[in-house]
């Protein structure tokens, strides 16, 4: 298993996020009061969904920055990112709106 000293930057942050998730799950599974464990799992799921939405927006913003910085058309952006033209357009629109697109 990797230790925090083995990773830096984004990898370290993702490692810490994974460890925090594992600890939250451990706490819920150890909770003797089943309704409390259920409520905790519900809160965890809500938080993870919110984090996923935020990460999707960050991804869309990065795609838009690539397009803008490199002066790319949507077609060229799609090709560079390995996406369909429709998906690249969705990401760019989502970033402009400041809202995550579905499955960004």
Strand and helix map with partners:
Layout: H1 9-30, H2 34-70, H3 74-81, H4 85-97
Helix pairs in contact: 1-2, 2-4, 3-4
Structure summary:
With 104 residues, the protein is an all-alpha fold. Helices cover 77% and strands 0% of the residues.
Q: Label the structural class.
A: mainly alpha
Number of strands: 0
Radius of gyration: 18 Å
Per DSSP, what share of the residues sits in E-state strands of 2 or more residues?
Answer: under 5%
Could you give a short account of the major beta sheet?
none
Distance between the termini: 30 Å
**What's the pLDDT, averaged over the residues?**
91
Topology order in helix (H) and strand (E) letters = HHHH
Name the poorly predicted regions. Answer: none
Specify the overall morphology: elongated
Output the number of helix runs. Answer: 4
Report on this structure:
The protein has helices at residues 9-30, 34-70, 74-81, 85-97. The chain has 104 residues and is mainly α. α1 (9-30) packs antiparallel against α2 (34-70), α2 (34-70) crosses α4 and α3 crosses α4 (85-97).
Provide key terms for this protein.
mainly alpha; 77% helix; 104 residues; elongated; single chain
């Amino acid at each position: 298993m990797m230790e925090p000293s083995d990773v830096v930057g984004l990898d370290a942050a993702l490692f810490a996020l994974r460890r925090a998730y594992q600890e939250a799950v451990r706490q819920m599974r150890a909770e003797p009061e089943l309704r409390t464990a259920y409520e905790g799992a519900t809160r965890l799921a809500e938080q993870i969904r919110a984090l996923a939405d935020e990460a999707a927006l960050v991804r869309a913003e990065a795609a838009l920055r690539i397009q803008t910085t490199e002066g790319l058309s949507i077609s060229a952006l799609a090709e560079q990112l390995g996406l369909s033209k429709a998906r690249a357009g969705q990401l760019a629109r989502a970033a402009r709106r400041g809202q995550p697109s579905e499955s960004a």
